[in-house]
Amino acid sequence: MASLYNPLEANKIRLLAFIDDTGTNCTLEKVYLNDAPPYACLSYAWQDGQTLSTPVAQSTIMINGQLKSTRPNLQDALAHLGPIARSNGHRFWVDALCINQDDLVERAEQVKIMKHIYEHAETVMAWIGPANADTELALGVMQAVSNFTHELFNRNTQRTALHLWQAAISRQPFFQNRPKSDVLVGWAEMVQMFKALYWGRTWVQQEITGNNAVFYCGPWSFTWKELHAFNEFHGTYGGLRDMPDKYMLMISGGVNVGSPFFDLHVAEKNRTTSSTSLAKKQKLMALIRELRLTHCSDARDKVFAALPHATDVDQVHAKDLLAVDYSKSVRDTFLNVARYYLEHGDLEILGYVGANCHDHDCRPPRGAEESPLPSWVPDWRIPYRIRPLNTGGRSDRDYPMLYNPLPHSTAQLQVTSSTLQIYALIFDTLRTITLTAGREYVPSQLKIKWGKHMKAWSPNLTSRDVKRILNADAQWSADEVGNARGEVIDWEFLDEPIEKMRPEHRYWRHNMRHVLRSVCRDRRAGRTKGNRIGIFPEAAVPGDVIAAFYGGHALYVIRPEQDRQGIFWMSLQKKD
């Protein structure tokens, strides 16, 4: 029997053509990407179910007269979406079927052009999963929110109570002849839909963050227009204290079950904006950081999925270190990212190593590597949101640099194999740190909880000093109110009831909260032996030393260990 996969020439791709409306009987043909007939791309979760540990069964489809094994979720997607593509005269591109997954060279070459494959598609068909009895109600809620969001947000009065916005949705055509309880059933089902495994995929940010994506849940579909309206609505009303937990996208401990979707929303806004200033901010390390909470079957894809969108990487000169290469191990792939930045004198990469903690929940799966990563290399598999303090708390821009501990200095380092030698001034030691981590409380609560500790440690510390520490002394906007350095956050404004705010003030407050959460997330307040007060990485412990690296734009926390050369975390101390 002839192989389905003959060698694929450069700049060619394979496309499926459906023979009938079953979606499981098709042919496979090779075409040049630039001359390809109209085609649709499929975006879906390879793994079925809600968790990655779900056992995987196998199904089969017919390609060129040969049976091909597939996962059930892919077969469901083909059965639902294949007839739609066929009726529109579209071929179909599916990574699992159109790429020879057993050929590492072909796989790498296709991944390099995958961004262009999706951009050239007539449409991207995103398969969320099969529908259930309440899916129609969930999509009805989403459409209703999309219909009245613009009108609602231009009113002076605010609908803050659950029963008020429930009544507003009930007046939309879809719900007019239904009981009000259907609104709540639909909303709860929509919350469940945003918990679906699909939204947290690593590759989904590359696949659907364009204007041509249509999302399918069984026979029902929606677009980014509905998702943007829902995001705007949820940003205003979704976190209200009087809304029952099951209708919120928040669960206990401040963990946002909808965060994969909201991360996608930010990525889509960034990638479709016409502002050239935003494109310049797409640093590879920041893009990989945004993928830390996503899941993929191959950890190397955390890097490879980010590479096409990075604007700070010279793909020609960096090909030896950063080329898509599935013959390299996860260890070498992550090590090469760190080496690339360090060899260019950029120490910011060290600020992402704070996730390499010893908490069992943060460790990669056992057996994931044949040898451990060097202590100075970020482990991008760890689902951790910490970011360096000299980078943006805003999704669409960077902070101005906070300050340079060693003005006008340049990085002095040597990278050889898996060893980093770096010159620094060690000048203090961590003495005390709070038990309260930044992710556990909203900013106004942190001001109280951390402020009490800080003032107890240093009675001369003023409230203004505490506030400057909490926002890392960085301005959150260059063109909006309250942007004086060190006076970024108006705390009275931050805590003002939402129903008293004008729409533009809600937007400002949202950005202020985002800055504070970005600065304080996964960090703790602490004091050094030199009586310096500041915020430290969550994994820091008393006895860790504080250092200023030549060429760095923040201070670092270092923990010497007997079996490893050192572990680095980026942190900011109160400026002397």
UniProtKB/TrEMBL annotation:
Residues 39-207 form the Heterokaryon incompatibility domain. Signal peptide: none annotated. This is Heterokaryon incompatibility domain-containing protein. Coiled coil: none annotated. Pfam families: HET. InterPro entries: HET, HetReg/Transcr_Mod. It comes from the Eukaryota.
